[in-house]
Amino acid sequence: MPARDAVVLTNGPTWDVKSGRKDGRVSLATNVDLRSQATSIISLPNFFAAHGFNTEDFVALLGGHTIGTAACKFIIERIFSINGSVIDLTIDPLFLAQLQSSCPINGDGSSRVALDTGSELVFDTSIFKNILNGHAVLKTDQSLFSISDDIVKTLINLTQKQRFRKAFATVMPRMSEIRVKTGVNGEIRKNCSKVN
């Protein structure tokens, strides 16, 4: 519900959220099967396809980056040549300078930068326009071009506001149905922030 509410509060679409879902009794990052910045962008569509998502679903989910921020420590090796990394040449040079100013090489890695520059507090299609213009903060977002022409076409199609809103509102409930706990696994919590 918090994800849906955050989207709605930022002028995004709404969708039904099923309640009564079981939560685990232990919450560890090692138990979560999410992809990180280190994941090969080429493998991401296959990861989502294995859960029944198509190309539009995959790109719409990445469109969720229209709101929110990232810590500088997650992009520093993309915007500077350090630790054997090379500056990502897919970034527009003026935007690169902006990112380097926001996340200096010896700065505080916990400082935040908007994922969708210019409208990080509004659920809109500008994330796709930023990606198309070389203004993506995350490497996974900017690398969409390197996967397939089908993904690029989908990216362009989702710049249409109503199409993106519909695609996002359709795919989010399906995300919540991945690996649902059943039977004796987990519990329906009385207070969502702690085990019963």
Chain-wise SSE layout:
Layout: H1 2-9, H2 44-49, H3 55-62, E1 69-71, H4 76-79, H5 93-102, E2 112-114, H6 126-132, H7 139-142, H8 149-157, H9 161-175
Antiparallel strand pairs: 1-2
Helix pairs in contact: 3-8, 3-9
Would you mind describing this structure in some detail?
With 196 residues, this protein is mainly α. The protein has helices at 2-9, 44-49, 55-62, 76-79, 93-102, 126-132, 139-142, 149-157, 161-175, and strands at residues 69-71, 112-114. The chain has a domain at 42-68 and 115-196: Peroxidase, domain 2 (Orthogonal Bundle). It is 36% helix and 3% strand. The chain has a two-stranded antiparallel ribbon. α3 packs across α9. The longest helix has 15 residues, at 161-175.
Outline of this structure?
With 196 residues, this protein is mainly alpha-helical. Helices cover 36% and strands 3% of the residues.
Describe the structure using short key phrases.
196 residues; mainly alpha; Peroxidase, domain 2; two-stranded antiparallel ribbon; globular; lactoperoxidase activity; Haem_peroxidase; oxidoreductase; metal-binding; metal ion binding
